[in-house]
Specification:
Blueprint (H helix, E strand, L loop, with lengths): L13 H20 L4 H6 L1 H7 L18 E8 L14 E10 L4 E7 L4 E2 L7 E2 L2 H19 L5 E6 H11 L2 E5 L3 E3 L4 E3 L2 E5 L1 H9 L6 H20 L2 H5 L1 H10 L1 E3 L3 H11 L7 E5 L2 E6 L2 E6 L1 H9 L1
Parallel strand pairs: 1-6, 3-12
Antiparallel strand pairs: 1-2, 2-3, 4-5, 6-11, 7-10, 8-9, 13-14
Helix pairs in contact: 1-9, 1-10, 5-6, 5-9, 6-7
């Protein structure tokens, strides 16, 4: 789905795209921002088979499933324009690493706070989200590899304007806000209670940082929002919208994975038990360095987390 391959991909069979769009939607969107949804998908898996009228996918038995642990870098970026050509100054708004271990039959979603203080190759130590603006996905990829001492196999970048469009296409999401949220920067302005959020309000909600806990609390809100979206919308009616949802994803996603590769990982993940999926956050502690607030990683705990 790289932008430079856009012209070559125009001839991709549309039926193939539609057959794989549901798996792609859940793996890109749900895994990207929360790590929930696999179990929800498994509940409705039979509907997917019926929807494809029993026609076998072109990427089933021929596709080699992974046998060794793999790491996928999952990034949410707000360029403000929804275009696949990323602006160099754009910052990574959500950074996660999805680890699939076929042998152990488990998966981990590792959230990295955007304010995490790390070494960025070629630059001074600074917030990890700056790596994307300095050198796009390639530099962010290298920064995360060095930080976690891993080898990242693939990446997926979702423009958050695509997130807005997906929420609108689904008809919004109801969220129970447990504390007042007021943040001029993100646009969040929510009182305590239930709110029906359209795409723009949803984006403001998941980006709001002006609360106790800052970026850590923001990650928890992201996870809660996507969990509620999965519960409220991943049903047979959503599957009927799969074509439009897939179109939005294609227009707002960058990746070095094609649909075949994405399906390969999702097929493996779908063999895992729901309880074998865990979402964790890199352990950090707030510190001020040169009058700038950071989340400084507790490296001893990070190393233990990555070993396990």
């Amino acid at each position: 789905m790289k932008a430079k391959n856009k012209a070559k991909n125009k001839g991709v069979n549309r039926k193939k795209i539609l057959r794989t769009s549901i798996i792609s939607l859940i793996i890109i969107l749900i895994v990207l921002l929360s790590g929930v949804g696999i179990y929800i998908y498994k509940i409705f898996y039979g509907f997917t088979e019926a929807w494809t009228e029993g026609k076998p996918s072109e990427v089933t038995t021929e596709t080699m499933l992974p046998t060794e642990p793999v790491y996928l870098l999952l990034v949410g970026v707000d360029t403000g324009n929804g275009e696949k050509e990323r602006e160099r100054e754009a910052l990574a708004d959500a950074i996660m690493v999805f680890n699939i271990n076929p042998e152990a039959k488990n998966g981990f979603l590792i959230s990295i706070p955007r304010d995490t203080y790390v070494e960025i190759p070629g630059f001074d130590s600074q917030k990890i989200n700056a790596a994307f603006s300095h050198g796009s996905i390639e530099l962010l990829n290298k920064t995360v590899e060095n930080f976690l001492d891993i080898n990242i196999h693939n990446y997926v970048v979702l423009d958050l304007q695509g997130f807005v469009k997906i929420v609108d296409e689904l008809g919004g999401v109801k969220i129970n806000v447990d504390e007042p949220l007021h943040d001029e920067l993100s646009g969040a302005d929510f009182s305590v209670g239930e709110h029906h959020m359209d795409g723009e309000k949803a984006l403001a909600y998941v980006r709001c940082r002006k609360t106790t806990g800052g970026d850590i609390t923001r990650i928890q809100r992201q996870q809660n929002f996507l969990k509620q979206m999965a519960i409220q919308h991943f049903n047979i009616m959503t599957f009927l919208k799969a074509g439009k949802l897939a179109e939005i994803l294609v227009d707002n996603t960058d990746s070095n994975l094609d649909f075949s590769g994405l399906t390969k990982y999702s097929k493996e993940a779908l063999t895992f038990k729901p309880e074998n999926f865990q979402a964790v956050v890199i352990p950090t502690e707030p510190k001020t360095i040169d009058d700038i607030s950071y989340q400084v990683p507790i490296m001893e705990e990070v190393k233990v987390m990555m070993k396990n």
